[in-house]
Design a protein that fits this description.
This protein has 3 domains: 2-73, Immunoglobulin-like; 75-181; 183-334, Histidine kinase-like ATPase, C-terminal domain (Heat Shock Protein 90), CATH 3.30.565.10. Helices cover 46% and strands 21% of the residues. It is built from 6 helices and 11 strands.
Length: 334
C-alpha cells in the first residue's frame, strides 16, 4: 500500500518537511524529510489511521495532522473461522495418531503379558510333570510292589520308608513351585534368604560346613519367577554335585548384584575334577530319581547346570583343579 501526500506552500515548497505515522502499525512518528511518498507491504487485516504533519522553512508545524482512515479486510484464507477449523483439524489428526499409538502399545503390552503368562504356565506344568509327577509315579510303583509282595512283610518297613521319601520329595517340589510363583517372594532379599536357608538345611544334616557371603541389605528390585526358580534349582544341583561327587566337607556360597547381574558362586574344598570331561546322561529312568551309578558322572550334572543357567540368559564359569576343589560362578541378568 502506497500513500502520497503534499502541503500547500506557495513561497518555498521545496523547503517543506514531513513526518507521518500509521496508527495500528507504527508506534511513533517517522521523520520523512522532503519525501512525499511512503509504502507499506504486507499489512495484516485491521483498522488503520494514516496521519501526516508538515513544517515550513520557519519551523512552524501544522496545527492538526491530516488523517486518512481505512479498514483492511482479511483474505479468505485469513478468516478466523478457517484458521480455527484448520487448527481443530490438525489437533484432531494429532489426537487420532496419538490414540492409535496408545492403542497399539496397549495391545502389544497385553500380548506380551499373555505370552509371559503362557510361558509361566508351561514352566509350572513342566516342573510339576517332571519333578512332582516323577516322585508320585515312583511312590505308586513302590506301593504296587508292596501290595503284590504281601508275603514279604519284613520288607514293608524299608519299602514304606521309600514311599515316604518319595512323597516327601514330591511335597518339597510342590513347595518350591509355590515359592517360585508367589508374588510376595519376588524380591532380592527373599531370594537371598531362600537360598541361604536351603543351603544350610541341605548341608547341615550331611555334616558339611556352610559359609555364606551375602549382602546385609538388597536394593528394591523385582526378581521374576523364572529366575527365582532357575537359580534355586541351579544351587540345588550345584550343592548335590559338590557333596555327592566332590566329597566336599566345606562349601562357600557368595551372592552379589553387580550392574544388573546376579552372581552366585559355589566353591567347595572337594576332590575337584578335570574341567571339560565329557558328560553322560543317565541311562535308566530309575537312576534319575535315586541318584544311581550314572549320576556319579559329575560332568553330566555340570552340563545340566550349564543348560539351566543359559536358559536364563546367563553364563556358567567352572574353575576346578583335581584334588583341590571346584568353584562354580553363575551369572544371570536381573
Amino acid at each position: 500500500m502506497e500513500f502520497h501526500y503534499a502541503s500547500v506552500n506557495l513561497t518555498a515548497p521545496e523547503k517543506t518537511r514531513y513526518r507521518y505515522q500509521l496508527q495500528g502499525h507504527d508506534d511513533r512518528w517517522i521523520e520523512a524529510g522532503r519525501q512525499r511518498v511512503v509504502s507499506y507491504a504486507s499489512l495484516p487485516p485491521g483498522r488503520y489511521h494514516f496521519r501526516v504533519l508538515a513544517v515550513d522553512r520557519h519551523g512552524i508545524w501544522s496545527d492538526e495532522p491530516a488523517v486518512f482512515s481505512f479498514v483492511l479486510l482479511p483474505h479468505w484464507y485469513q478468516a478466523r473461522w478457517l484458521q480455527l477449523a484448520v487448527i481443530l483439524l490438525l489437533a484432531a489428526g494429532m489426537l487420532g495418531i496419538h490414540l492409535r499409538r496408545v492403542h497399539a502399545r496397549v495391545r502389544l503390552e497385553r500380548l506380551a503379558a499373555e505370552n509371559r503368562l503362557a510361558r509361566e504356565r508351561a514352566r509350572i506344568s513342566r516342573d510339576l510333570h517332571d519333578d512332582l509327577g516323577a516322585w508320585l509315579a515312583r511312590a505308586l510303583l513302590l506301593l504296587g510292589r508292596l501290595r503284590r509282595d504281601s508275603a514279604g512283610a519284613r520288607e514293608w518297613p524299608r519299602r514304606l520308608g521309600e514311599v515316604e521319601a518319595s512323597v516327601r520329595a514330591g511335597s518339597q517340589t510342590m513347595r518350591e513351585v509355590i515359592w517360585a510363583t508367589d508374588p510376595d517372594c519376588d524380591t532380592l532379599a527373599e531370594l537371598g534368604t531362600r537360598l541361604a536357608v536351603f543351603a544350610q538345611e541341605y548341608l547341615g544334616p550331611l555334616g558339611v560346613r556352610c559359609r555364606l557371603d551375602f549382602p546385609a541389605t538388597w536394593p528394591p528390585a523385582v526378581v521374576r519367577a523364572e529366575l527365582r526358580q532357575g537359580l534355586f534349582l541351579s544351587l540345588k544341583e550345584a550343592l548335590h554335585n559338590a557333596v555327592e561327587h566332590g566329597e566336599a566337607s566345606e562349601i562357600h556360597l557368595a551372592l552379589r548384584l553387580t550392574s544388573g547381574w546376579l552372581h552366585l558362586a559355589v566353591a567347595d574344598n572337594g576332590r575337584g575334577m578335570a574341567v571339560g570331561q565329557p558328560a553322560q546322561e543317565p541311562r535308566d529312568p530309575e537312576e534319575r530319581l535315586t541318584g544311581g551309578a550314572s549320576s556319579r558322572d559329575r560332568g553330566a550334572g555340570l552340563a545340566n547346570l550349564r543348560r539351566r543357567v543359559e536358559s536364563l540368559g546367563g553364563r556358567l564359569t567352572v574353575t576346578s583343579i583335581p584334588h583341590d576343589g571346584t568353584t562354580l560362578d553363575m551369572e544371570v541378568p536381573l
